[in-house]
Amino acid sequence: MNEEYDVIVLGTGLTECILSGIMSVKGKKVLHMDRNSYYGAESASITPLEDLYKRFSLPGKPSESMGKGRDWNVDLIPKFLMANGQLVRMLLITKVTKYLDFKVIEGSYVYKKGKIYKVPSTEAEALSSSLMGLFEKRRFKNFLQFVAKYDPEDPKTMEGIDPTKTPMRDVFAKFSLGQDVMDFTGHSLALHRTDDYLDQPCLDTIKRIKLYSESLAMHGKSPYLYPLYGLGELPQGFARLSAIYGGTYMLNKPIEEIVVEDGKVVGVKSEGEIARCKQLICDPSYAMDRATKVGQVIRAICILNHPIANTGDVNSCQIIIPQSQVGRKHDIYVCLVSFAHNVAAQGKYIAIISTTVETSDPEKEIDSALELIKPIEQKFVSVSDQYAPTDMGTDSQMFISRTYDATTHFETTCDDIKDIYQRMTGSEFDFSEMERTKQDCFGDVE
Questions:
Q1: What's the pLDDT tens digit per position in 147-174?
Q2: What does the UniProt keyword field contain (predicted)?
Q3: Which of 205, 237, 242, 254 could share a disulfide with 24, CB 3.0–4.6 Å?
Q4: What is the pLDDT of residues 405-420, one digit of tens each?
Q5: Taking CA 420 as the corner, what is the angle to CA 391 and CA 97, rounded to the nearest 5 degrees?
Q6: Where in 262-329 does DSSP place strands (E)?
Q7: For residues 331 and 320, is the Cβ–Cβ distance under 8 A?
Q8: What is the Rg, in whole angstroms, of the alpha carbon atoms belonging to the chain?
Q9: Is the Cβ–Cβ distance between 183 and 132 less than 8 Å?
Q10: Domains in the chain, please, with CATH?
């Protein structure tokens, strides 16, 4: 182990595995270590089911009605991939798609006044949606048409809106859209977590709605994809990529010390030996003295023997509960996957609820979501601290990732990956070389 590497990576979360793969492809000599014996770290999929009971210190074992323990691959952190989003582009550019099979999530829903409704994201759906009255449907249709043709490079498409100055609240007002429509547009299409976006320049929100629409157009049922056998397949795919390009992996490796000399990282000490490096990537748990707590997320993993009511009995879906509907500052998310994705026993479903903690009683904060998915066979609840780096790595050459947030997509994770990449290399992550046809890589999506 007494070798010198360009980059040492600590932790096998998705962020770390993607960066490890990218650096290996770029010709860097990479050593990747994890104190755990499995891939994925906090973004792992747990199998067998008995291990989930142990992880959450639940007494007893799964009942026989839950099938074989090996039939289960339960994600600790629920997220979907936007079909035209950044993670799919990273999978394409690195060709990791050949290690994975995906299914389209069957529906996207929004909560309004105690009920759930399908999210209308096309003009046809808008006109048939029971979310809105007749006149509002027409106004929303006009808004969607405006977003579809909007091009910040072409002033004719802007209709008097300045993308860098006009707040999104004014754009909604221009189309006379009411509070309920603003709620599902901002939170279920643009996927904002809070209402802060309303007073910020509209360009970001318009781009987000375009991403949702483009992702939806690719496969039809929803804009989301999910890998068979669970999200734990993603870090493993990028780990394979790194290994193909010469990366070295060591699991179950205790990390005794990150060695720093004159303020700069020079290596990692494990089992009495030091592996030397020029740069280091790690998750916050390996460098707590260089990270700060920025909040908490509650997640409830719920095992069901039924699909969620009022969804048309789909095998998978996302439900967003906009914060204003339940008197909160942050949205609540529900992700449903099932036996159809090889993550649960036959006839079983996994619903995972997540949100940003706001009070001293986190579980009470998700009551509205728990009510939607009842009855629940078994529940596993965790409250996790969220961390962000205080050291940006300029001097130390240590690059620390952010903890996974409550969102149910990987766009914020990809933003973090691109940010770390730019700080490490001094250049922006370039997607341009990726442009192979998506059908080549996702032709087998069901």
A1: 999 998 898 898 889 999 999 999 999 9
A2: Acetylation, Cytoplasm, Golgi apparatus, GTPase activation, Membrane, Phosphoprotein
A3: 242
A4: 999 899 999 999 999 9
A5: 150
A6: 264-270, 273-282, 291-304, 317-321
A7: yes
A8: 22
A9: no
A10: 4-58+85-97+228-293+387-430 (3.50.50.60), 118-220 (1.10.405.10)
